[in-house]
Design a protein that fits this description.
two-stranded antiparallel ribbon; alpha+beta; 7 helices; two-stranded antiparallel sheet; single chain
Length: 170
């Protein structure tokens, strides 16, 4: 598969990671432009900002007095350091749910320093996706849905991610 371009992420004077990309743009008339081969696409964590949209539209940030820092940890994969864990814990506390409700399993922090400093086994909050799950739980609380609504694809919180706001499910 050929790429349209390559992005190199530098940290401390060294290349930390290299990412190849392809892109597509569909014009209103249906014309498609882009670069790189079309192949399978795995959005994975790149979908997190879109998964946060239903919570934003529902006013979850305002209702629970969450800040842009809380939104940031929900829209990205975090490294599990103290700042990240604090933001996730604050989201859970604000909406009144515990860490056990997170739809992700325990995972060692990705940040090497945070992983080395960890005493004992990791918990769900250490998972790099815990911020996304915490904001999903806040949406469930806000909408009076069961908290399990964040973990299965057919649930309301996931349907809201793919449904235009004018056609949202009840």
């Amino acid at each position: 598969m050929s790429a349209a371009g390559t992005v190199r992420v530098w940290r401390g004077g060294h290349v930390e990671s290299v990412h190849r990309f392809a892109w597509r743009l569909r014009e209103p008339d249906g014309t498609v432009r882009g670069g790189g081969d079309i192949g399978p696409v795995f959005l994975r964590s790149a979908a997190k900002p879109f998964q946060a949209l239903p919570a934003i539209r529902a006013g979850v940030l305002e209702r629970f007095k969450l800040t842009p820092r809380h939104l940031a940890v929900a829209c990205a994969s975090h490294g599990g350091d103290g700042q990240h864990l604090s933001r996730v814990a604050e989201i859970l506390l604000a909406c009144g749910v515990g860490e056990s409700a997170l739809g992700c399993g325990p995972l060692l922090p990705r940040d090497p320093s945070a992983a080395a400093a960890l005493k004992g086994r990791p918990h769900r909050i250490h998972h790099n996706c815990s911020g996304k799950h915490a904001l999903g739980l806040a949406l469930c609380v806000s909408e009076d849905w069961p908290s399990r609504a964040t973990s299965t694809p057919a649930t309301r919180s996931r349907r809201r991610c793919t449904t235009p706001s004018s056609k949202r499910p009840a």
